[in-house]
Structures are given as structure tokens and as C-alpha cells.
Amino acid sequence: MAKVYFIDVTNRDGVQTARISLSKLQKTMLNWYLSQMGVHQSEFGFPFLGHERNYILANLALHRKGAFENMVLEGWCRAVEGDVRGGLTTGVKHLNISIPTSDQMIVHKFGGRLEREGIIREMVEAARAARDGGVETLGVNAEDASRSDMEFLVEFGQAAREAGAARLRYCDTIGYDTPDSIRQRVNQLASRLGYPIELHCHNDLGMAVANSVAGAAGAIDAGVDAYINTSVNGIGERAGQADLLSCIMALRFGRGLSEGYEIADPIDLTVAWRLARYTADAFQVPIPINQPGVGANAFAHESGIHADGALKDRHNYELYDYQLIGRVEQVCEPTGRTITTGEYGGMAGLKYVYERLGIAFADEETGRFVLNLVQYANAHNQAPLTDDELRFIAMYPEEVRQILTIKPPAPKGSGELRSVRTRGKATVLLH
Ligand SMILES: [Zn+2]
User: What is the pLDDT of residues 93-131, one digit of tens each?
Assistant: First the structure.
């Protein structure tokens, strides 16, 4: 029977969102948590981008070491041959390539440079470059699929399949679909294409989660696997995208979904709480008080009728248990003397903090190496390092060193850049 898989795109769509970002170490931590949760795949970055390169290389190395268990690491790029070839030099083996399929975008982004046939031609060239470059699973993204002509989408999907695509990504790029429309359109698309569909839904009408699970149901009803794109806490372009935990809970507990629509991977929901909190802190975007599952009020009851009912039997006012999603820890912060380690820390503090985590260093040299990494990691994150980050640094020091190494390219041409001030207003950069 066809099943539902999850591809989390926080490390791609989430980080490209305006005004927010993650450090390369924070992105790595996200991969770590997602793998512990049992998420099928992480769209972990942009392999052709210079400043992502060391992060990509190190995460692939971590994967080979087993740090991410079975989770697939997949890179994203435009369906442009050059981007694909550039990205593949990292050794990434799973790739999604993206190109618009709606007339709106074909006309108003490419301005006559490409028409429908040209879109298919570019996609096929990029897909072939991926296949020739040794990509094991290729996803082809139809950007703005929800506003695309169905006949053209089918043609595009068939050409993608022939060029080696394992999945077609149906992107509701601007959040236009509704649960009814996406279920029906994806069902039609899946029936005619006969291979797995990815759902990539945005939240501009507040329906990203509903659309994702409805679209997945449409694919499964047509007999093909569905891959839901999610992000942690729903972070994503503009109003965000489908929240990972909400989609899982909808499939587990939603009426009409909890039977018949099965999640393929064994998900460890107890990681959800740690993952949501880490991500909120890393992005510096607080979890809304009413966020499903992980919001401060998700299991809070105050009004007379609700508190009385919940105390008598939690089923009166709760759909699922808080323990299920790992809300079991008691948060207790020291209020007296506190020793921390970080950017300007030394050996004594480092040893003390690590001892508290149950980690000791074999010799002085190892301790020094870890201290350097901790200092650089703190300088890199510009936020206090979490216990899990400290653990991760000690577990995978070589890979962390590579993740922390970012070197911008020198200017092209000769000489250094210098600025010239002209009449007090504009500043001009010159070689
Ligand atoms: Zn998106």
C-alpha cells in the first residue's frame, strides 16, 4: 500500500526566509534532531553555494559515519545544468531541481526567454546532468504547480519521469490551493503519472497543513506514495509552510486520516519538543503560545469548565497526550553560581561544563582541541551553546571544524576593493 513520507525543508526553505537565518552548526543540529525523530529526508541545503560547501561536505561525512542514521540528505538547486553540475562536486547523491510550470511565472519571470517547451527542455537537461553525475534519487519540482495548467503539468511530469525523476514535487508556492482542490488535482496528477508526488504547501491562507495532508491523501488514493514537505514550527517563506509536527499529528489523530493513510517511517515523536524548542531558539522566532503540540498553551486549562473536565479525564479536552511529544522534562535553571563555556572560555570552565554532561577528555590535547571548537562555535552561532551542541562538538570534532570553516572568495580581477566617497552621499566600490 502507498504510504506517506516526510521531507523536512527547514534547512532550505526555512533558512531562505526573509529576516531569519541559521548558522551552519545550527543547520547541522537540525539534521541531527530530524534524524533522531525518524524523518525520511532532510532537504539540507544548497550544494552549489560557496558558503554552504563545507557544511554540505561535513554533513555528508557525518552521514557516512552514521550520525544521521537512515535519514536521506538531499540538496536543492534550480533546474539549471550549471547549478546541478556545481552542486554534484560536493558528492551529494540526492537532489531536487526546481523550475516554474505556471504561465504566470513562465511569462513574468522568464519574460519570453522560455516558453512551455523551453521549460521542459531546461528541466530535462538538468535532470540528465543529475543522472549522469551519479544522483541516486532525483526530485523534479514544479514551482507554482497549483496555478499550472493540468495538461502541461502532466506533460512536464512525464518528461521528468523519462529523464530519471523518482518524484514530482507539486509546489503550492503561493499557498493558493484549498484542501479540496489540492486533493483533487494531486489525485488526477498521480493517477495520470503513476509515480510518487511530493506536496510542498505554503501557508498564505493558513491551510498549509490541511493542504499537505489532503494532497497526500489524493496521491495515496491514486496508489502512489506521497512525500510531504514540512518545516519545523512551520517556518518558511512569507506566512510559512506546513509544520512538521502538525502534519504528523493530523495523520495520526485526524478524522478520516488516522486509518488508511500510513506514515512509512517509524517516527519518534518524543523528539518533537526538543526539536521545536531548539529551532525556535536558533531562528530566534518564539513558538506561538497556541502552536499545536508544542505551544505553551497546547495542554493548558484554566477556565472553570475546561479545568474541571481535564482534571476528571484528560480525554475531555485533549486529543493526544503531552508525553507523546516529549513534553516530560522539568525545566530548571540554576539561579545561583553558574559556569558556562564559550567564545572566551578556558580549560577549567570547559572541563567543568563537560563533566556535568558526563563527558571527560582522554588527554590535554583533546581538551584543547574541543576548547578551540567551542570558542569558534560560539563565535559562529553568536548564541550560548546548548548542551546538545556541546555534546555534538565532542562527538564529531573534525566535522564540526569543517562546518565552522567559511572562507569568502577573493574579488575577481586584480587588486583589493576600495571605497571612494563621492560628494558625501553615494559610496562607490572600485578595484
Ligand atoms: Zn517553498
Answer: 999 999 999 999 999 999 878 899 999 999 999 999 999
pLDDT tens digits, one per residue of 126-176: 999 999 999 999 999 999 999 999 999 999 999 999 999 999 999 999 999
Asked if 277 and 336 sit in the same domain, the reply is no
276 found inside a domain: yes
* Shared domain check, 179 and 37: yes
Please give the distance, rounded to the nearest whole angstrom, from the Cα atom of residue 2 to the centre of ligand 1. Answer: 24
Query: How far apart, in whole angstroms, are the C-alpha atoms of residue 74 and residue 34?
Result: 13
| Statement to judge: residues 38 and 136 lie in one domain | yes
Centroid of ligand 1 to alpha carbon of 242 (angstroms): 10
Q: How far is the CA of 108 from the centre of ligand 1 (A)?
A: 19
Determine the angle formed by the axes of helices 208-221 and 244-253, rounding to 10 degrees. 50
Cell of 248: 504528523
Report the separation in Å between the CA atom of 429 and the middle of ligand 1, taken as the mean of its atom positions: 35
**12 Cα to the center of ligand 1, angstroms:** 9
The rounded Å distance from CA 260 to ligand 1 centre is 27
Question: Minimal CA–CA distance to 140: which of 151, 155, 156?
Answer: 156
Residue 381's domain comprises 332-431
Count of the separate structural domains present in the chain: 2
What is the DSSP-derived secondary structure letter of residue 270?
Answer: G
Same domain, 112 and 199: yes
Cα 236 to averaged position of ligand 1 atoms, centre (Å): 7
pTM (global) more than 0.85 = yes
Count Cβ atoms below 10 Å from residue 89 Cβ, excluding itself. 13
